[in-house]
Structure formats: C-alpha cells, structure tokens
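All the exercises in this workshop are built on plain-text protein records. Sequence and backbone structure share a record, each on its own labelled line. The structure tokens are whole numbers drawn from a learned vocabulary of backbone shapes. The record below serves as our worked example for the rest of this section.
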Amino acid sequence: MVERILFVDDNEDLLRSMSDLLEKIGRCEIDKAVNGKAALNAVRAKNYDLVLLDVELPDMTGIDVCEKIRDFDDTLPIIMLTSHQEFHNIGFDAGATDYVTKPIKADFLLTRIKHHIRRSRQAVNAVYRFGDFEFKPNCNELIDAKMNRIILSPMETNLLRYLLDADGNVVSRAELLQDVWGYGKGVNTHTVETHIYRLRQKIEPDAESHSIILNESSGYRIVA
C-alpha cells in the first residue's frame, strides 16, 4: 500500500531531495507545501496518512500549524522536524505524534513514518478496556464506570496505549522515550514522569496510592 504523505518545509532543496528519496525507497506518495497556509489547505482538501512538518516556516510556526490541524483532526499522525530539541515538549503539547531531529536520516525517518502509519491504521476502531474504563484512542478519550468522558491529550493517548499494549509487562523509561516520543538513546529528560503524573491525575482513584499505573524499578506497568 502506498503511503500518502504531506511534507511541509520551506527549504525547497531539502523538500525535493528528501521527497524523491522517500518515494523511491519507501513507496510513498508525497505532496509538498512550503508554508503553513498551504499545508492547512492541503490537509483539509485531501486525506493523508501522515504529515511531516518542519517547525520553522515563513508564515507561521510548525507548532501553530499542528495546533490548527488538531482543531479538526485528532488522529492524523504528525511528525515534526527540527534541529532544536527544546521544541519537543512544546510540539507534543500542541498535538505532535513524534519528532525527528535534523539533519534527517532517510532510513530512520522512513522507519518512524511506517511505525506511526501502522499504529494509526490499527487504532482507528480500537477500544481498550481496563479497570473501570473504556479507552478509545481514536477519540483521545476514556469513559469511566459512570459514563463520564475523560479527555486525554494526544501524547497521553499514545502513552496509555503503549502501556496497555505491553499486556502488564514492565516498560522502561528508555523504551517509552524511544518508541512513544522518538528520542534517541541517552536522552535525559523528565518528560515520561511528567506525562505519567498527568495521566494518573485522570485515571487513578487515589492520587496518593497508585493502583493502575505502577512504578517498577526499571519503569512502569499498567494493571488492566
């Protein structure tokens, strides 16, 4: 199956060369946009499997574009491209699915593209049940036993789904950073702990005594 991708970058040489390479080695069909306005018009006009979105654009930031896409599409995978790691958390808060740091390595980027498209397609109609909750990743929401809706951020959704897919096994912080956030080895950050804390505030019946997301010496596991 050909992957339909929108590549947004104002560096036209990079846009052209990387698009040609991805089409050649990854069987990708790529549309190009050189600014945020063109990107938003393209996403509204056509169904894409994924968006590659540069942080620095001439008319608005990639963060702004990501937020505007999330206003009308909660599920479209968005991989942001940047040479500045400090943008990572800002981008995730805006709804980014993943980050790839420049300079871009085509084989690594293609791996991330395939990974997120596969997960997106698998999750379109997925429903998880654990404890007193029904979890719908495609809606970024939980339904509790009293039928209350609990809205999750896209990153909280990705984190919870990853923990549930582990089937009760311990998931290390390093694995979460690599597979959920797309960070490389050796990155030292409190991102995982921060998002685990926020997720617990929404799903744990007792904030002082964790009974759903458990701390282990090497990471976390979820009691389903």
